[in-house]
Amino acid sequence: MGTVGQGVLRLLGHNAEEITRRVGTSVVVTDVAVRDPARARDCDLSGIRVWDDAVRLVREADVDVVVELIGGKTVAREVILAAIARGKPVVTANKALLAEDGNAIFEAARMAGVVVAFEAAVAGGIPIIKAIREGLAGNVIASVAGIINGTCNYILTQMAEKGESFEDALATAQRLGYAEADPHFDVGGIDAAHKLAILAAIAFGMPLAYGEVAVEGITHVTPEDIKIAQVFGYRIKLLAIAKRHGAAVELRVHPTLIPDDTVLAKVDGVLNAVVVHGNAVGQVGFYGRGAGGDATASAVVADVIDVARALVTDSRHVVPALAFQPDALRPLPVLPIRAVESAFYLRLRVADEPGVLSQLTAILAAHDISIEAILQREPRGGDDATVALITSVIPEHRFDDALAEMQRLPFVRAGSARFRVEKFD
Ligand SMILES: NC(=O)c1ccc[n+]([C@@H]2O[C@H](COP(=O)([O-])OP(=O)(O)OC[C@H]3O[C@@H](n4cnc5c(N)ncnc54)[C@H](O)[C@@H]3O)[C@@H](O)[C@H]2O)c1
Ligand SMILES: N[C@@H](CCO)C(=O)O
Ligand code: NA
Q1: Domains in the chain, start-ordered, CATH in brackets?
Q2: Catalytic amino acids?
């Protein structure tokens, strides 16, 4: 019931209705184990049996799935092995344990016929495990690389953009629930190396080889290095790289200068990004929140849903074709496009005469449409002039009404262009 555990409990509550429609039955938290029952928590434990001994819970409670969100390699390992021994599927976010002891844990799970699911262990909310293991399974994967520690990326971003000190940025990352219990795992590059070992295993089909990852953290990256790199046109990011070289692989985590006009250079704050190179698909990129209670809970709950579906559905239809159970699909009214809101780009050909702009803008104002950008190009060689503009976000019917009125003006020629504008931020 720490950062991620509370996030999972909240999410299972908030999204209960849709989760039931996806699984075919409700997913209910019946039992939790906590270290300190007296501690105040940002989630509702009413109706839930609270244990002070996690291993005992797993051995004795009447549950279908065990979710391990304790972290570390002692109690967490005991919890997972006890669940496997009882034949209970396990969901965990524990990359440290999996990277270091995963070979033995997965073997024990295989022998017992039990699933150990771990989407939350790598890149938080980004569904990278599922993408590589299932979505890209038709490829021979040549490389997996990216930004996979949210805490380090947050610190480096704050140092570069806000001039914040390393210590202050780390303290904020801890407060926001991004950092590991021991933040040395983050800033020392160890957490990224744990995740890289997991990625390399599922990308290349090799056992977990955490001990062979070359690791360098970000503690010696100074504000001065960040500034000089910026002058050269680079950003400094903690990258994790796994690449095939013939029959060998390279596995490394280190601060890296990357050109500031590349996609990875623009992945800032707690965001993670993973780029996979497959021999059929080419390059595929994944991007999203890599840490934090809610983003990580998204991945944990996805695994819980996977496991729950397998428990309640016949094996040929574990994942419903349309994601929700067939009897849970509900028709939703689709908005007519005229009611959809968007910003618009408009280009008009107009006669070159006085008063053109003011009449066009008067019509827009009358329809309560504000202009975000506008330009007028003078006529060349007897041509008409061009006026182009971008509007604020408005319902489409309002834009169309204004456009129809503009097109009735005597100086507006045929041949206008109109496109929707999406800003994606
Ligand atoms: N925070 C994130 O963004 C994030 C993202 C991905 C994965 N993870 C992983 O998720 C796991 C949990 O991380 P977190 O950030 O929630 O850590 P956290 O420290 O907030 O939570 C861990 C909780 O476990 C409790 N605990 C410790 N020993 C216990 C015991 N014996 N019995 C019962 N409870 C016990 C602690 O009191 C604490 O509340 C870790 O494996 C971490 O690496 C975290
Ligand atoms: N401490 C980790 C949590 C997500 O695995 C990070 O900052 O990325
Ligand atoms: Na993930």
Answers
A1: 3-123+295-328 (3.40.50.720), 128-291 (3.30.360.10), 337-421 (3.30.70.260)
A2: 195
Q: CA–CA separation, 94 vs 106, rounded Å?
A: 13
The answer for residues whose C-beta is within 8 angstroms of residue 89's C-beta and 6 or more apart is 64, 65, 66, 83, 114, 115, 116, 117, 307, 310, 311
CA of 14 to the centre of ligand 2 (A): 24
DSSP 3-state assignment of 237?
strand
Q: pLDDT tens across 35-74, in order? A: 998 888 888 899 999 999 999 999 999 999 999 999 999 9
Q: Which amino acid residue places its CA nearest to atom 25 of ligand 1?
A: 70
ipTM field: 0.99
Assess whether pLDDT exceeds 80 at residue 425.
Answer: no
Q: Is 68 annotated as a binding residue?
A: no
Give the Cα separation of 369 and 291 in Å (integer): 39
Atom of ligand 1 at shortest range from CA of 75 = 31
pLDDT digits (tens, 9 = 90+) for 243-286: 999 999 999 999 999 999 999 999 999 999 999 999 999 999 99
SS3 31: strand
